[in-house]
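Re: [ENG-882] Designed sequences occasionally contain unexpected residues at chain ends

Forwarding the minimal case from QA. Structure tokens:
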């Protein structure tokens, strides 16, 4: 049974799940750890952090693309909704009380209520939007199956122009001012991924060329951010807002699709690596739930990871890499333990009920 399960998994997209979650950790470490704000802008690391951010900005898009790719041929189950809600609730409550017990934060009834109602109080924005997308998936699938291929292509063209190409304009002139953080963009990505599953990519090029496009997009975004930063300093502004770090930006969409298509049919020849990927991939979502717990993230970067040690440290890149990988591994191990405990409890329940 275990071998068949491994064969049935898409190793390329499992790899993308892992890569995407590591990218999310990189984004949060650089952004919430204030590395860009505190690092000297004349150093190589300053440019490198921008490049890391440009590389990683596609992470959420890739996660949604993977979901759309598989959900088009999947049956909707309320059980999955309850499982995701339960997992989110477990980590939200458990982590909050651990933080209080350890002494990293004082107990506050307001924080306790938020931790006990993570979905209702929007403690995890991605979970809220993802759950809505999943609940809508059977209706989206009916729409998709009712469309002819050419009609589907016209629909995607309208959506991409209306919600991605137009996103480069000021927010007041766009149809979706969320920057890709809302249900509208998730539905767009779902429909794009479902089309790829049903009809394949309209652009028939090699995986290597897709990867080159992915890198070129990241380089373009990096150069744009550096240029905008320099312009802001020249005109006397302390900060700038770039449209090229929004999930629904057309360059970010192209970059996301390029990596998705690069890895979609990717296969690992090494059996050991294949087993590692198939083992780790189902555990990755918990990495988000753990490190983004609303109360933990307020103390994670300064009191636990001490990101301030990277601000003027010549070895900061090594600290960043080590910290990100350590966070990923620790969270994966925690989720593995949680799943093991759940299986044991279920096993005990079966014995008791027999």
């Amino acid at each position: 049974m275990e071998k068949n399960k491994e064969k049935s998994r898409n190793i390329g997209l499992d790899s993308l799940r892992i890569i995407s979650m590591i990218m999310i950790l990189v984004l949060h470490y650089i952004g919430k750890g204030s590395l860009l704000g505190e690092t000297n802008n004349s150093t190589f690391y300053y440019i490198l952090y921008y490049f890391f951010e440009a590389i990683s900005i596609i992470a959420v898009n890739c996660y949604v693309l993977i979901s759309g790719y598989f959900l088009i041929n999947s049956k909707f189950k309320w059980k999955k909704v309850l499982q995701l809600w339960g997992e989110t609730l477990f980590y939200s409550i458990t982590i909050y009380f651990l933080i209080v017990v350890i002494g990293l934060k004082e107990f506050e009834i307001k924080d306790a209520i938020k931790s006990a109602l993570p979905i209702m109080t929007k403690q995890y924005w991605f979970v809220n939007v993802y759950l809505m997308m999943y609940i809508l998936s059977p209706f989206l699938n009916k729409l998709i199956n009712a469309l002819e291929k050419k009609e589907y292509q016209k629909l995607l063209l309208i959506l991409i122009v209306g919600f991605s190409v137009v996103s480069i304009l000021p927010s007041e002139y766009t149809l979706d001012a969320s920057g890709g953080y809302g249900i509208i963009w998730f539905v767009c990505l779902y429909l794009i991924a479902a089309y790829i599953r049903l009809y394949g990519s309209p652009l028939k090029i090699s995986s290597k060329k897709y990867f080159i496009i992915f890198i070129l997009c990241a380089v373009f975004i990096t150069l744009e951010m550096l240029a905008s930063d320099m312009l802001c300093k020249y005109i006397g502004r302390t900060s700038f807002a770039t449209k090229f770090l929004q999930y629904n930006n057309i360059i970010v969409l192209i970059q996301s699709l390029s990596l998705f298509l690069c890895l979609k049919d990717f296969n690992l020849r090494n059996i050991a690596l294949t087993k590692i990927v198939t083992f780790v991939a189902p555990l990755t979502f918990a990495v988000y739930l753990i490190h983004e717990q609303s109360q933990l993230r307020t103390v994670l970067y300064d009191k636990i990871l001490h990101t301030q040690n990277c601000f003027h440290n010549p070895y900061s890149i090594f600290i960043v890499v080590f910290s990100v990988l350590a966070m990923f591994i620790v969270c994966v191990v925690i989720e593995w333990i949680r799943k093991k405990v759940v299986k044991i409890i279920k096993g005990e329940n079966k014995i008791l009920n027999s």
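QA comment: On inspection the terminal residues look reasonable. Residues 1-7, 350-354 have pLDDT under 50 and may be disordered. Proposing we downgrade this to a documentation issue.
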